[in-house]
Specification:
Elements lengths: L1 E2 L3 E10 L2 E10 L12 E2 L4 E11 L2 E10 L8 E8 L2 E8 L6 E11 L2 E10 L26 E12 L2 E11 L31 E10 L12 H4 L5 E11 L7 E3 L5 E3 L7 E15 L2 E12 L9 E12 L2 E12 L4 H5 L3 E13 L12 E10 L30 E10 L5
């Protein structure tokens, strides 16, 4: 995910016969220049032109898209390529060419009775950078096109419905055209990064992945994968359970983080090649308009954004409960990063156990979303600490003490807690 440069966009759409046509021109006016979060690092200044055409042929839908991106801001910029094997690399320097500006993809869908299916394929030049694909295709799949240039990809999946149940397998393969620089490359070689180079290999890293998603939704009129389903769902009980497996045979290029002085920090290495998996589930229960519960759960493996090699196995979940004017939100995380701070994942800072509880009452009707509302509440957070946690100081001791204490606040096993009260005031209409 990248920071957005100030830009101007022009969009034109029209229907020609049975075809829906759209063209967009995008011109970055300047580089953003700064950022306050590693999930919004400014991308290189660019321009792009995209084209999209769609048509239905009975039960079959066809979409074709094309992109030209880069141009004079990026063409001619140099980047490194490493050839050879570990301990015997040759580092070469190449330049962005006009042919690196082009990309395109095609997508076909099929809908008939109980079966929905799709397949798509795309190829994008080194700087033919498009955005991520947030299209909701049939169901709540998590494997999607990562966006960005320097990749070829293929995706395919289908759903099969029986009564209120649906089974939905989905598959993804993607590979960068120019792979990442190796972690053990020596000088003058270095890992690419999005600040100093025209492109880098991050979310477009080589991936072979599959997922299976099972859903139970007795009220399809309030589809459980709609963006506002937390609010709109009216089923007394609906749920899903999914499993995602990703095979990453290579590492990535360098990520961007922040130092203690809030300056850009380029990690010297990246997390290594690794196979990752995660199981997840969501439960929604709206027993009455004034009584409801929503729960989200996950368990699996994950890697840091930065250069730490430690693979974590994490799990957790959150539960939101509303009854009339009272809203209760509880969350548990086991061996996970602390949210919402992005630097925890950047530097692989985890807590053995995190628990939080938030109880509030509203002057109006409580909402599942974080929307303007006048309410008063109390929130408590507790975390245990270990050697992978921030603020863990096992060797800290009072002056002239004979033995160290486990943490600066003196808890025997290393922990921290916080209680806060709050008042949210909404003065809008």
């Amino acid at each position: 995910m990248g920071g957005a440069n100030p830009a101007i966009l022009l969009k034109y759409s029209r229907q020609v016969g049975k075809y829906n046509l759209t063209g967009i021109y995008h011109e970055d006016l300047d580089n953003l220049g700064g950022a306050v979060s590693s999930i919004a690092i400014p991308q290189p200044k660019t321009r792009r032109v995209t084209f999209h055409a769609a048509r239905k042929f009975g039960d079959i839908g066809l979409e074709v898209g094309g992109i030209w991106g880069g141009g004079s801001p990026l063409n001619g910029r140099e980047f490194q390529v490493a050839e050879g094997t570990s301990g015997n690399y040759t580092v070469l320097t190449d330049k962005i060419q006009a042919s690196d500006n082009f990309g395109g993809k095609i997508k076909m869908t099929y809908q008939s009775g109980r079966v929905n299916a799709y397949a798509q394929a795309g190829a994008f030049g080194l700087v033919a950078s498009n955005g991520g694909d947030y299209t909701q295709t049939f169901t709540g799949w998590r494997l999607k096109e990562s966006g960005g240039g320097n990749q070829t990809n293929v995706l395919a999946g289908f759903t099969y419905s029986v009564g209120d149940f649906q089974i939905a397998p989905n598959f993804l393969w993607q590979k960068p055209i120019v792979g990442p620089m190796p972690n053990d490359v020596g000088a003058p070689g270095r890992l690419r990064n999005i600040i100093q180079d025209p492109f880098s290999v991050r979310s477009n890293r080589e991936t072979t992945a599959g997922e299976i998603l099972l859903s139970y939704d007795p009220t399809p009129a309030t589809w459980m994968y709609e963006w506002d389903n937390d609010r709109s769902e009216d089923a007394k009980f609906a749920m899903n359970i999914g499993f995602v497996y990703r095979k990453h045979p290579t590492a990535q290029d360098a990520a961007i983080g922040f130092s203690d002085t809030r300056d850009f920090l380029i990690f010297p290495n990246s997390a290594p090649a690794e196979d990752l998996w995660e199981a997840h589930s969501r439960v929604v229960s709206k027993l009455t308009p004034e009584l409801g519960l929503i729960a989200n759960m996950y368990y699996g493996t994950a890697q840091a954004n930065g250069s730490d090699e430690r693979l974590i196995k994490r799990g957790g979940g959150d539960v939101r409960f509303i009854y009339k004017k009272v809203k209760v939100t509880g969350a548990v995380k086991v061996n996970d990063w602390g949210g919402p701070f992005d630097y925890h994942r950047d530097f692989n800072l985890t807590y053995p156990l995190q628990m939080s509880l938030d109880i509030s009452t509203s002057l109006g009707k409580p909402d599942w979303f974080i929307l303007p509302d006048t309410r008063i509440g109390i929130m408590g957070t507790w975390r245990s600490l270990n050697e992978f946690s921030p603020r863990y100081s096992p060797n800290q001791a009072e002056p002239f003490a004979n033995q160290p204490i486990i943490s600066p606040v003196g808890f025997p096993n290393g922990s921290e807690w916080e209680i806060r009260t709050y008042v949210h005031i909404n003065i809008g209409k």
